[in-house]
Specification:
Blueprint: E1 4-7, H1 12-25, E2 30-34, E3 46-48, H2 54-63, E4 68-71, H3 77-82, H4 84-104, E5 109-115, H5 139-158, E6 162-167, E7 169-171, H6 184-194, E8 198-200, E9 208-212, H7 213-225, E10 237-238, E11 242-244, H8 246-254, E12 262-264, H9 268-274, H10 283-289, H11 297-316
Bound molecules: serine (SER).
Residues 76-77, 115-117, 140, 167, 169, 180-182 line the site of serine.
Length: 317
């Protein structure tokens, strides 16, 4: 039976991925960890971990006989622009700790998330191919390009089975926005449900690749279950599900919440969004490990508008 450690597990992806992995592998076989938020969890084994503390990290892997790591601890794009040094330290040196410990302690499989942020203004904007130039304009993007190269290097040089996808913006309703440029599309549903006007920090027609959280969890698990010999990409796979602008998500919400209004007040995050692709070509992921999404924009909107009020009610009761 697998013994899995998730770092950064209190984040948007981590909390939903942990729940799914616990369903598959058993609660006790998935150890969640984070530096922020609660130090304890009633959902299963959970520990405090600073991934930059190599000794504590090593001790935790040994204590739990971990054989797979999902390394999610990172700063997102907008937060990293505000804290360049921590963005680099956490996103790159944290990953190097994972790669070195995984090599030395014979970890069987590692998952590490990359991002559409590896692409910069010189990449093809529409249906950006897998092998487009990666010349990012952000601290976050620089850290993800470096991370992808480190993953490919450790696979080539040490045979480490490290796997990765370039997530688009991930939209879920179970946790709050976490400092990403794409997180306006999380916040917008909260405002729609509260009956408030949403103030958008991106321009009305700024298109970005996006994905519903349950598809992101599915992609992660599908990739980790794929036979190693089928994987032709060891930097990170492009994956895509949908692409929309703030105007389009507002229209999708208005089908269910007719009076919903949005104002546009773009800030520094608009420049980040403008440097990223509008949409992604993910044919390598579809060919190599049969990637296929389940949700489009309206299906995601329907589910979030159904589920979010129930979740808020549960939290308040
Ligand atoms: N969702 C991320 C961000 O906006 C991009 O990978 O930072």
């Amino acid at each position: 039976m697998a013994k899995i450690l998730i770092t950064g597990a209190n984040g948007q992806l981590g909390s939903e991925l942990a729940a799914e992995l616990r369903m598959i592998y058993g609660t006790e076989n998935v150890i969640t960890s984070d530096i922020a938020g609660s130090r304890h969890s009633s959902d299963g084994p959970h520990e405090y971990l600073d991934v930059l503390d190599l000794k504590a990290f090593e001790a935790m892997i040994k204590r739990h006989s971990v054989d797979q790591i999902y390394h999610l601890a990172a700063l997102l794009s907008a937060t990293a622009e505000k804290n360049i040094q921590l963005g680099w330290d956490l996103n790159v040196n944290g990953l190097l700790n994972v790669l070195n410990l995984s090599r030395d302690l014979k970890i069987r499989k590692v998952f590490w998330p990359s991002s559409i942020a590896v692409f910069g203004p010189d990449a093809q904007k529409i249906l950006t191919p897998q092998n487009s130039p990666c010349n990012p304009a952000t601290v976050y993007g620089i850290s993800k390009v470096a991370g992808e190269q480190w993953c490919a290097y450790y696979h080539r040089k040490f045979g480490l089975d490290v796997r990765s996808v370039r997530y688009p913006g991930l939209i879920g309703y179970k946790s709050l926005p976490g400092g990403g440029t794409t997180d306006y599309a999380v916040d917008i549903y909260h405002k729609a449900i509260a009956g408030e006007t949403f103030s958008c920090f991106l321009e009305e027609e700024s298109a970005l690749p996006m994905m519903y959280m349950s598809d992101a969890v599915k992609a992660t698990i599908d990739l980790m279950n794929a036979p190693s010999e089928h994987l032709s990409v060891r930097t990170s796979y492009n994956i895509s599900a949908m692409s929309f602008t703030p105007a389009e998500i507002a229209r999708s919400i208005r089908k269910r919440v007719p009076g919903f209004s949005v104002e546009f007040d773009p800030d520094y995050r608009q420049e980040i969004a403008a440097s990223w692709p509008d949409s992604i070509d993910d044919s390598s992921a579809r060919t190599d490990w049969n990637w296929q999404q389940q949700y489009d924009l309206d299906a995601m909107t329907d589910e979030i508008l159904d589920q979010l009020p129930l979740m808020i009610q549960r939290m308040n009761s």
